[in-house]
């Protein structure tokens, strides 16, 4: 707000926003003044607070001149502004009530979200990830999307306590969505005792993982390798043809399939990646 | 893979295979088919489309030796290879 220049007050009344040194003795009284008023309204409280810090100087001189008084400067001695003060207080209280009600409603909504989401999942059948239902007869009818070549790269990992040699037999394979593909891993048990392993897999990028359908593989079931035995483990899979129509997959050209073998022991449950 | 703080990020949900797990080929009965398939892949720069015949033969070998449940080949996506003629390769 610009300066309120009033010719009669020229000498002292540069009433505007200006910086004032906190230590200035000339204004000390005016700084203290609002806090001594019993009916100190909350309106413009921020200004008062800052004013106390000496940052902004909202000139109080016009307060002594009723005609110039801006409506935001109430004094309890003035009956006209007392009504205003009451009005602002009432409005503040109403606002505060509304804000508190909204906060409580938000809290309640967050609690209600859990059963509501469960209900939503039941009705729409989306179990956490939107997957187009795929039945085995879909494989019969699916048409390969020949112009979208994807590179599938293979990775093999073994848990530290499992002493198998486990590796893929091909580093990558080029497929198109809608085409079934076969890939091989090899596992060797170099020890002298039979070891039972169980594996899980992972696909990155995660969003592409929903299109990665395995028809048959060697995961999630215990596989026993005798001493010094080496076996080929096939994975028969396909990429859902709807992959080519997903706009989020436009830039996805490389999908990595990663298998990890763990040792199957009594009482151990397979650590499944991700949150369930 | 996912740390404790990643509540908002998507995580991967592994799904079991549709037809279950392949029994292990302990006796290596289909090893020759597998070798043929791998050789085809190596020769063709790992393009799967060119080696589908070999993969079909490998799966047929498995089915014959009871290492895999018998399935009509159409259900495995080899409908175009059934007649013995290979499809037009990409």
Question: Could you list some keywords that capture this structure?
Answer:
heterodimer, A: 276 residues, alpha+beta, Ctag/Cox11 (Pfam 04442), five-stranded mixed β-sheet, four-stranded antiparallel β-sheet, 5 helices, 9 strands, elongated, disordered N terminus, B: 90 residues, mainly alpha, 2 helices, globular, disordered C terminus, transmembrane (chain A), Cytochrome c oxidase assembly protein COX11, mitochondrial (chain A), copper ion binding (chain A), transmembrane helix (chain A), membrane (chain A)
Explain what this protein looks like in three dimensions:
The complex is a heterodimer of chains A (276) and B (90). Chain A has helices at 28-36, 45-53, 79-124, 136-141, 206-209; strands at residues 150-158, 165-168, 172-175, 180-188, 195-204, 212-216, 223-225, 230-239, 254-263. The two termini of chain A are 58 Å apart. Among the domains of chain A are: 81-128; 135-261, Ctag/Cox11 (Ctag/Cox11 (Pfam 04442)). By secondary structure, chain A is an alpha+beta fold. Chain A has a five-stranded mixed sheet with strand order 3-1-9-5-7. Chain B has 90 residues and is mainly alpha-helical. Chain B has a domain at 30-70. Chain B has two helices and no strands. Chain B has helices at 31-43, 52-64. The longest helix of chain B is centred in the middle third of the chain and has 13 residues, at 31-43. Chain B is globular, with a radius of gyration of 18 Å. Chain B starts with 30 loop residues before the first helix and ends in a 26-residue tail after the last helix. Residues 84-90 of chain B have low confidence and may be disordered. Classes of the chains: A alpha+beta (276), B mainly alpha (90). At the A-B interface, helix 4, strand 3, strand 4, strand 5 and helix 5 of A face helix 1 and helix 2 of B. Chain A: It comes from Macaca fascicularis. Chain A: This is Cytochrome c oxidase assembly protein COX11, mitochondrial.
């Amino acid at each position: 707000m610009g300066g309120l220049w009033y010719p009669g007050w020229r000498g002292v009344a540069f009433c505007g926003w200006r910086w004032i040194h906190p230590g200035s003795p000339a204004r000390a009284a005016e700084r203290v003044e609002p806090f001594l008023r019993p009916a100190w309204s909350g309106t413009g409280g921020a200004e008062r607070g800052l004013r106390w810090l000496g940052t902004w100087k909202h000139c109080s001189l016009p307060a002594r001149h009723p005609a110039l008084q801006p409506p935001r400067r109430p004094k309890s001695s003035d009956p006209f502004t007392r009504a205003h003060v009451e009005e602002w207080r009432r409005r503040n209280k109403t606002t505060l009530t509304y804000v508190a009600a909204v906060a409580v409603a938000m809290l309640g909504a967050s609690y209600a979200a859990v059963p509501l989401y469960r209900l939503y999942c039941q009705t729409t059948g989306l179990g956490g990830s939107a997957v187009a239902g795929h039945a085995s007869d879909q494989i019969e009818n699916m048409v390969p999307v020949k112009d979208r070549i994807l590179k599938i790269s293979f990775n093999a990992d073994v848990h530290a306590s499992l002493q198998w040699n486990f590796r893929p037999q091909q580093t990558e394979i080029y497929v198109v969505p809608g085409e079934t593909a076969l890939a091989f891993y090899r596992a060797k048990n170099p020890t002298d005792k039979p070891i039972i392993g169980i594996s899980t897999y992972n696909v990155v990028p995660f969003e592409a993982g929903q299109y990665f359908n395995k028809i048959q593989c060697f995961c999630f079931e215990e596989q026993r390798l005798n001493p010094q035995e080496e076996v080929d483990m096939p994975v028969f899979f396909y990429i859902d043809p709807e992959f080519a129509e997903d706009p989020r997959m436009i830039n996805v050209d490389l999908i990595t399939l990663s298998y990890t073998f763990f040792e199957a022991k009594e009482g151990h449950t397979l650590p499944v990646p991700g949150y369930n | 893979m996912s740390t404790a703080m990643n509540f908002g990020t998507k995580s991967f949900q592994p799904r079991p295979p549709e037809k279950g797990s392949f029994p292990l080929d302990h006796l290596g009965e289909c090893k020759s088919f597998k070798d043929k398939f791998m050789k085809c892949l190596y020769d063709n720069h790992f393009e799967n489309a060119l080696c589908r015949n070999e993969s079909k033969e490998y799966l047929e070998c498995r089915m014959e030796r009871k290492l895999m449940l018998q399935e009509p080949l159409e259900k495995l996506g080899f409908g175009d290879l059934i007649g013995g003629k290979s499809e037009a390769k990409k």
